[in-house]
Specification:
The protein is of the alpha+beta class. 21% of the residues lie in helices and 33% in strands. The chain has one domain: Jelly Rolls (Sandwich), CATH 2.60.120. The longest helix has 13 residues. It is globular. The protein starts with 16 loop residues before the first strand and ends in a 6-residue tail after the last helix.
């Protein structure tokens, strides 16, 4: 891509937006084709009391920066609360999840290394946005294609303890 055609500035309201399920959204800021595949950057708006599906990445590391609100985080057996300005490292191979334990919206900036996980998010959002009920078999098969596996046993306990809406 010629320098004159490259995009060097992404404004706060720019980027494709998709819904990723109950209480979680995504705004695409930088994707693989803009970083040579080294990393991607997305924002996650997290609605009050939303719990993200507990999971493990086999191929990607995630680095989150809390932009707004408060986020609860579980990485392995450790739990944390992170406020604005806090960095959270979620290494590949370690189960993790995050949630909004408050009644106010929260927002994370997430750097994913290497890039590619944003393609999973895009596919997931498009499956959920389609008319009618999503194809649950295709939805269940999607994470495995991207080296993601669930950690479902955490959901009920976290949802009950923090008054959260469980993931789909």
């Amino acid at each position: 891509m010629a320098v004159a055609q490259q995009r060097f500035v992404i404004g706060p309201q720019e980027g494709d937006r998709l819904d990723l399920g109950p209480g979680l959204g995504i705004v695409f800021k930088l994707e693989a084709d803009q970083t040579g595949g080294a990393f991607s950057v997305v924002e996650h708006p997290v609605q009050p009391r939303a719990l993200v599906w507990p999971h493990v990445h086999e191929q990607n590391d995630e680095f989150s920066y809390v932009l707004e609100g408060e986020i609860g985080v579980r990485i392995g057996e450790q739990e944390f609360t992170a406020g604005p300005g806090t960095y959270v490292r979620k290494p590949r191979g370690i189960p993790h999840t995050f949630w909004n334990p408050t009644d106010r919206p929260a927002r994370l900036l997430e750097i994913i290394s290497p890039a590619g996980l944003e393609v999973f998010f895009r596919e997931l959002g498009e499956m959920l946005a389609g008319p009618g009920q999503p194809d649950f078999a295709a939805l269940a098969a999607l994470p495995e294609r991207y080296g993601i596996r669930g950690q479902e046993e955490w959901s009920p306990e976290l949802a009950q303890r923090y008054g959260l809406t469980p993931p789909m």
